[in-house]
User: What shape does this take?
Amino acid sequence: MEGSGARVSVLGDTIKHFPAGQLSAFDISASNLSKEDIQVHIVSPAKRPVSYQLTESGEDVYRVAFVTTEVGSYIVDVAVAGQKVQGSPFIAKAYDAGLIRVSDVPNGVVGQPCQFRVDASQAGEGQLEISINDGEVPNHVQVLGGGRCLVSFTPDTAKLHTIDIKFNGETVRGCPFVCRVADTSRVSLTLRHLELIPVGRPAAFNIAVDGGGSAELTVTVRTPSHTTLPVRVSGSVRAGFTAEFTPIDVGAHTIIVNYNDSAVSGTPFTCKVYDAAKVGVSHLPRGAIGKSLQFVVDASEGGEGNLEISISAAGRNIPTQVHPQGSARFAVSFVPLEAIDHIINISFNKEPVQGSPFVAKVQADPNRIVVSGQSLAATAVGKTSFFTISNVTGSVEDVEVSVEGHSRKHQRAY
Assistant: This one.
């Protein structure tokens, strides 16, 4: 504003932006004017007037001081001797670095991206500055919108990383944030032998840590019901560690190994716990020669695994049919050829199920002649073979046997 010999200007960054909740001020330079010639009106984002103090701070300089708590845009109208100064009304934006929210900074792993979120949606407009280890570690900021962003960095050394965040030059509350970085490549373990394990028996695996120094190892085993099992970890960095636990439930268990609060490669690992004792076998009916004998195997409560069934008679294997019924239930059938006991072996994950081996009694039909023997199905060339004829009412002279080979020659046998 120029006129009446007066030169007026508004000075200070506060006329552009200022921190909420703190005393803020801007200056008015007005020569040849008095305090009474200056009029100031400040309106908050909620359209409420803001009180202020006008004081003389120097020759021809007057200071406007005020305190606000509301974040947002303020309208500042300045007039001198009834005339608005150049640029009035001004838009001054209030911010509050104390309203910046930073998500929990996770622990990091060497060579793997580490991420955290910064939420400035309630803090007003401003410039966000992020520095990791005093700028030694590069970081990338992805704008998510709405005043929120995702910050990521990739540590290359196993040490504490400090994160400093500033908003409009002010340090954000909670800084510096600390990220513990571990080198999990130092840790090796083998878990493949735990893919299938029996319930109620101790299971163990070894953990090796390369190099010296301390090592903070934690081992967690989660049950199918998401509870945790007691785990005993013994050993040292030099000798290696052993982790041991005993599952008490059938189902998938999750093994998690953390090194300095970071998950070791290969975990979480899922091991399947089974119980061969929970595999049930139905009643075995009495069999008859030439008639199919059937029973049911129920492994629905035994967990995951491999079911093996073998049937033999007099040391010879009998062809067996297994028919899946769904829900880990199986119908097993075979046709006995001899009136002798048939031995049924059933194992689950190489462990005999309860009651195995089972015995199937096979009897002959008293009202008919029965011919039985393994050689009726197959026999070796050049070797003596035999089969049995039962329930014969006459003498051996009454029996005539004809064996027809590939050359269609007939052989008589008694």
